[in-house]
Automatic annotation (TrEMBL):
Residues 3-160 form the N-acetyltransferase domain. GO terms for molecular function: L-aspartate N-acetyltransferase activity. This is Aspartate N-acetyltransferase. It is an enzyme of class 2 (transferase). Keywords: Acyltransferase, Transferase. It comes from Vibrio maritimus. InterPro entries: Acyl_CoA_acyltransferase, GNAT_dom, NAT_camello-type. Its EC number is 2.3.1.17. The keyword Transferase applies. The keyword Acyltransferase applies.
Amino acid sequence: MDVQVVKVAAEHDDALCDVIKTVGAEYGAIGDGFGPSDPEVLAMSQHYHEEEGSLYLVALVDGEVVGGGGIAPFGEHVGVCELKKLFLLPKSRGYGLGKKLTEQCLAFAKQTGYQSCYLDTLSSMSAAIKLYELAGFEHLSKPFPGTLHNGCDVWMLKTL
């Protein structure tokens, strides 16, 4: 099995859109208030640019897009980024891809000068929450002001 993590490119957009919407539906993250409904999902490569402080990574297994995850500035919060749209197809889970994506995203965030990283997710995504806890994220009692994902019920923050 050939596993790679690469920067998003236009050639990944359609498959990535399918992955994000499929995994979102698996966990009931459908409609307004959930990441899979964000307009950027239709063309992720057009929305993540390192010079703007954002990066989206794509996980490939034997050349097939199986997931991804990214970092982007969080609203108007200076020094805060967001871990965004970390999704993996069921067949690609359990191989350490989520950990690899998270570590590479957080390394980019730190190199870029962010002081902290926010994320929101669903309590039903227990494996993801465990991954985030192991990566050093701490639970918050409420979402950060300005979050677009009001359907989420778990909010976490990590100091970088």
